Amino acid sequence: MSDKAENRSIATVAVERTFFNLDSDYDYAVPPALADRVRPGVAVEVPFGSGNRLRRGIVLQVFVGINPALKDIARVCDYGTVLDESQIRLARWMKNRYFCATYECLLQMLPRGFGKIGVAGVRMAELTVSRGEELPRLTPKQQSVADLLLDIGSATVEEIKTLCGVGDGVLKNMEKCGVLRFFKKEKYRNPYADLPAAPKATEIKLSAEQTKAYHTLSAMLDGDGGSALLYGVTGSGKTAVLVERIVSLVREGASMNRMLIVTFTKAAAAEMRQRLAKRISREAISRDPAMVKALDELETTQISTIHAFCQRVIRSHFEQVGVDPLVRVCDEQQQKLLFEAAFTTAMDELLDERTDENFLLLADAWKQDKLLALTARLYDFLMALPKPFAWLDEHVDQLSQPLMQQPWVETLENAAKLQVGAMDDALIAIRSLFDLPNAVMDRMEALNADAQLISALQGLEGEALRTAVANFSLPRLSPKRGLSAEEKEWGKRFSDGRTAIKKRAERANELLNPDFAQLERELPAIQAQLRGLAALVKRTHQHFREEKNARNCMDFGDMEQYTLDILEQQEVRAQMQGEFDHIFVDECQDVSQIQDAILQAIHGEQNCLFMVGDVKQSIYRFRKADPTLFLGRMQTFSEDEGARERKIVLQQNFRSSFPVLDATNRVFRQTMRPAVTELTYAPEDELICGLGAREDDPPVMVHLLRGPDIRDALEGSASEAAGHEEVLQTETRVVARRIKELLGTTMPDGKTISYRDMVILLAQTTNLAQTVVDALTEEGIPTFYDGAESYFNLPEIMDMKALLSLLDNAQQDFPLLTVLKMVPFSLTDEELAQIRLMQTGQNVPFYQAFAKACGGEDEFAQKCRKISEKLETWRFQAEVMRLSDFIWHLMTDSGYYAAVGALPKGEVRQGNLRMLYERAQAFEAEGGVTLAAFITRMDEQERGGDSISAKMLTENEDLVRVMTMHKSKGLEFPVVFLMNMERRLLLMQTSELMLHPKLGVAMPYINRKLNICRRTLMQEAFDEQRRLDELAERARLLYVAMTRAKLHLELVATVAGLERTKWELALPPSDSRVREAGSMITWVMQAISTDAHTKSTNYPQASTPWDCRDWDELPQKTVDKVGETEADASKVLSLLQTAPPEGVFPEKTVQTDILPLKTSVSALVKKQADALPLSDAEEDAETKHAVDENGTPLLLSELPRRPAFMEEKRMTAAERGTLTHRALSLMPLDALRAADDIPTVIREALEAMQKRGLFTEEELHIISVGAISGYFTSKIGRRMLQSGNVRREWAFNLRLTGQQALLLQGVIDCAFEENGAWVLVDYKTDRVDDEQTLVNRYAEQLAWYARALTEITGKPVKERYLYALRVGKAIAVPEIDAK
After folding, report:
1. How far is the C-alpha of 1312 from the C-alpha of 1357, rounded, in Å?
2. H-helix or E-strand containing 1325?
3. In angstroms, rounded to a whole number, what is the distance separating the alpha carbons of residues 1029 and 1032?
């Protein structure tokens, strides 16, 4: 204890285990030795009470003063600073508000079990005097202890006893004399101490691209206030780079407690914490002190959603915004009810005041229910903006500016430019008519003149464009005489095409040259009503806040607005910026404007901001996410070294196969266009396959079903709903077939595909997903759908609600009937009928009959009395027990909770019951007490459509998932089906109030005196912008959905003939095509049709990853052969050229003597050889390799020795040939190139293929290793192995020009490049008697292959060979032209 009356440091300490009437602020002197360690928030030990026993405490404040009577702080605990000043302020407020000890309030903010580690401490001793001070007279043993402690300062009791040879009595006597004092020192257990010496933690391997990004971040983010934007495509390992950066900072000495890590969802925050724990634990094994410390700090590191961060800020600075620090978040239903009450109050006040003329105009023009909807819509929009009401005033005032200065005028001009661009597309379509028979070539001159007029419009801006569009006119066509009927029909099609151009020009003129004078007359009236609406929403906001404060609750919008208000205060902002050295934001493309403002506010000159995201995955605009914020940073941030705002790009995708990524790139190169879908699919946006292309990667499959065009039906109508259900059932049958085909197949990692590896994604699941689930269940496929079924329509909740209603009011028939059927009563239908017969009559309620049944003397009456007595017991308990406790007691005492747990999906059902208990707790927290009031609340929530229910699904459950595309974000599956892709892209606008962050606010012109309500040009502009925003959102949603697939991606759509005609092959990609696409499948097919229009081949050997199937007839459940109902989509795309819309183009009579629009090389050669009708069958590996039926006679040994029904099934020659060809195409070329023993390599490869399921054991015995080995050891085989560019099983589509639109298909067995030219090899398993006969038979086929190869690749074919596998010889084929 200090006796000196001089200034010294004094600490106010909150001490543990103090009574409230004694609990004041305890002051202690700070010893000079501890002066640099004692500060607010530090845990200490202090002598307390007359016995001076040590107790824990937390320093509240430190100041300089004079008080010689103070005791000294004994020691500072090793925890360091455990609380900050804001938490101390909150604890003091809690103490006064809730009448409790300060230390107990502080303890609520500390981790559970704080300080308990120190219980297992070591008892220490030290002298109370310093060296040089005089000691009292001591015994020899006491002197030996004093000498030891003077030398070493302090020691454990056991050490002193051992070294000095003394017992406990000597030490206790020294303590009584005041020479010695005891204290306890915490002994921390190192969890790694008992492990054997560990090597350095395994190095985490990043890709070269990730490593470059990591080093770039390390170089720039070094506490200098810089910002970095890591733009990584899906599956590129963005989060891995973020985690590695955090670990490297810890390694360099950074504290986890000085980092803020913000994620978009709670699940993402939990996953981030788990990933960091796993990563840091690996480093901590090597006993790195920094990592061990980081692992301890990880529990308290701020890893959370933006809303959780906002809650912490509000609780730390609650007094600045005037809310309770323990304020809770209200649910949506309560929020809705409170808003309606606030709106009603605001309306009444403004109507009573009658001082705001603008509001009175508004109230006169709109009904109150409509005004409520408008106010709610505007308020919801404003709360996502920083300074919401300033924004509103600014944009309402902006309507006073000249018309041409309004921001939405530019939107109209851009829309007109899209119409002008669409005129070019129409021109191309007209030009293609001249390739048809019966074209009137004299019209080419008129077409060229039209083209010049349209070309003159391109590139014009502003007034020049307005003038040109206003004066645009196509010249009239001069009449043509003497035309045939076919030529007249062609002329009608030509005229219809020009009419389409004229309509485009008229629409552009409407947008650019409207009646501006009328709009200028209308704008003042619109502005007046908007001012009235602004007054109403401001007054509603005021009362809404009051209603929520009265109930001690707030919504998420309040959280963000309060937080930004707090951070706008300079001192608080500086304090918050000083709390964090590093700020990490994951998925930053999903933040709203106000969330971004909050994050930027805590980013200062002394900390670093690291943002991670991919704007192509921004799919939450409906939640007020603003992707333009990310786009703006992409444009302003630099890739230059040393830039303060740095952009880093990751392009390699390590999730998906090459065909999935290739298909995605193809679709979005065309679909993502800045004028239409907001984004540019630039080179840095391309997905690069980090896994590399694998030869056996499956293509992306597109299943097209024929059906009615239900998209044009009235949205939401019964007929449309029925149409969607029928279409979905049909699509699901196709998906079910594919699921069964894929089930059990082998993936590249050697695992087999199970149900849990598959997911079905829908753009929207409302009223649709259950149809899919039911259809799959009928097919025997287990399915899980985490749907939005109404919580109160769940059977277990309906039962419990009936029981609660009956206990509240016994005179109700329906609840009584439900309860009697429930556990624990479980009456049968016969017993219920028996009760009903107790008292009959038209108006006699059932509860009276039940009361009479209880009055009898038989066994059944006794059973009824027991039920009645049990109900009365529960009714009494409901009156005396707390509501939530009673509900839990009711569920357990009745046995109902246990009973539903035994039903299918019992865990989910029990979870729903637990949610009912939690709802009761929440109701109590709001001040609710009675059972009747709780039932009323349940009724309100049910009317509001509450759909939150418990859904439990573990990863080990083998079920096919059905979910929305939105919910799939962040997930990945080996097999992904995208269904219902024909669904309408754009949703219909239903609100008269139109809002946009940049354009402002718009509403219709209303004149009550003239009884006019008119849509304005301003609304047209807003509607056009809405269309573009929704198109952009849908494009990003499709991108997210397609990139969920790791291996198999399959797209399913039902499309009418009218829609198919829009996939015009000759049209190049354009803004207008993307804008006018009606569905996601149209976007996909536009990309496919572009591929089909050019020469292309099928993946893996060439440039297109598609495998399209057109289901002409819908498959029945009993059909197993896919080939009977499928055809290549190339057939569909070709048919589109001659399948015009009804009433626009004439119908054609099908002729049987012409070539079909699609054929195979084999069929074409066969027709030329045999003069037979040409087949439109596809050429695939099986049909190509079949032995010519007419080409080779059967040998006697190949004839069956017994009748067919007695003969065991034998493999045909064609089947043996197909097996050999497949084996040749799958042989590992790299292993063969390096092999000394080729036959051994071939045998090992075949065995590996058999294990992977590519061949059965029986098939493996049939494949000739000798024949395959002979090929690879032959001269031609060795030349092939030496080539660096080898293509095998190369499927191609070649469009032939001429009078007939013919799409030629084929499969090239092998082609390899040598000195810039191709060598073509075709394998044959035919029996060879005469080489020339074989050459004659196949020379034409190889000529077509050579022509396709040359036209597709642009490289010549220098040599052609047939390799006869039976004789092991390569036979040269002379060069002839394909005819």
Report:
1. 10
2. none
3. 5
Q: Could you tell me which of 986, 1022, 991 has the C-alpha nearest to residue 410?
A: 1022
Contact between 768 and 980 (Cβ < 8 Å): yes
- Integer Cα distance of 1126 and 847 in angstroms: 62
Q: Is 905 exposed, middle or buried, given 0-12, 13-18 or 19+ CB atoms closer than 10 A? A: middle
**CA 60/CA 25 separation, integer angstroms:** 9
**C-alpha closest to that of 13 among 30, 25, 29:** 25
Whole-angstrom CA distances from 638 to 601, 634, 674, 1378 are 22, 8, 20, 55
**CA-to-CA distance for 336 and 334, rounded, in angstroms?**
5
Question: Which residues are CB-contacts of 340 (< 8 A; sequence separation ≥ 6)?
Answer: 372
Question: Residue 1015: how many CA atoms within 13 Å on its side-chain side?
Answer: 10
Q: Which residue in 1135, 1123, 1104 sits closest to 706, CA to CA?
A: 1135
362 and 993 in contact (C-beta within 8 Å)?
no
Q: For the chain, count helices (H), then strands (E).
A: 51, 36
Residues linked to residue 1104 through DSSP beta bridges, in sequence order: 1098
Arithmetic mean of pLDDT over the chain? 81
Query: What is the gyration radius of the CA atoms in the chain, in angstroms?
Result: 40
Q: How confident is the model at residue 774 (pLDDT cuts 50, 70, 90)?
A: confident
pLDDT tens for 628-669 read: 999 999 888 888 877 888 888 888 888 899 999 999 999 999
Give the rounded percent of residues in the chain with a pLDDT score beyond 90: 25
1129 and 706 Cβ atoms separated by less than 8 Å: no
What is the structure's pLDDT at 1054?
87
The region of weakest confidence among 433-437, 994-998, 1093-1097, 1354-1358 is 1093-1097
ω into residue 824 within 30 of 0, thus cis? Answer: yes
Alpha helix (H) ranges present in 638-703?
Answer: 658-671, 674-677
Strand partners, 136: none
- Number of other CB atoms surrounding residue 936 within 10 Å: 13
Query: Which has more pLDDT, 282 or 729?
Result: 729
3-state secondary structure of 1320: strand
pLDDT (0 to 100) of residue 1213 = 67
Which residues does 881 contact at the CB level (< 8 Å), separation at least 6? 889
Dihedral over alpha carbons 1106, 1112, 1117, 1118 (to 10 degrees): -110
Position 303 pLDDT exceeds 70: yes
Q: Are 1313 and 1283 in contact (CB under 8 A)?
A: yes
Rounded-to-integer distance, Cα 710 and Cα 1147, Å: 23
CB 1270 within 8 A of CB 1230: no
Q: Residue 821 carries which DSSP code?
A: H
Query: 730 with 778: CB under 8 angstroms?
Result: no
**Cβ partners under 8 Å of residue 459, min gap 6:** none
CA torsion sign, 782 to 783 to 789 to 792? Answer: positive
Mean pLDDT of 987-1007: 85
Question: How far apart are the C-alpha atoms of 883 and 877, rounded to whole Å?
Answer: 9
Backbone angles phi, psi at 881, to 5 degrees: -95, 155
Q: Give the whole-angstrom CA distance, residue 999 versus residue 392.
A: 11
The model's pLDDT over 872-913, given as tens digits with 9 standing for 90+, comes to: 999 988 888 888 889 999 999 999 988 888 887 777 788 888
pTM of the model: 0.66
* Segment among 158-162, 314-318, 920-924, 1190-1194 with least mean pLDDT: 1190-1194
Q: Taking the CA of residue 546 as centre, how many other CA atoms within 13 Å lie in the half-sphere pointing to its CB?
A: 12
The residue count of the chain comes to: 1379
Q: List the one residue out of 1229, 1286, 1290, 1228 whose CA is nearest residue 1099.
A: 1290
**Cα 402 → chain centroid:** 43
Which segments of 1043-1160 does DSSP mark as H helices, in order?
1057-1060, 1071-1075, 1080-1093, 1129-1135
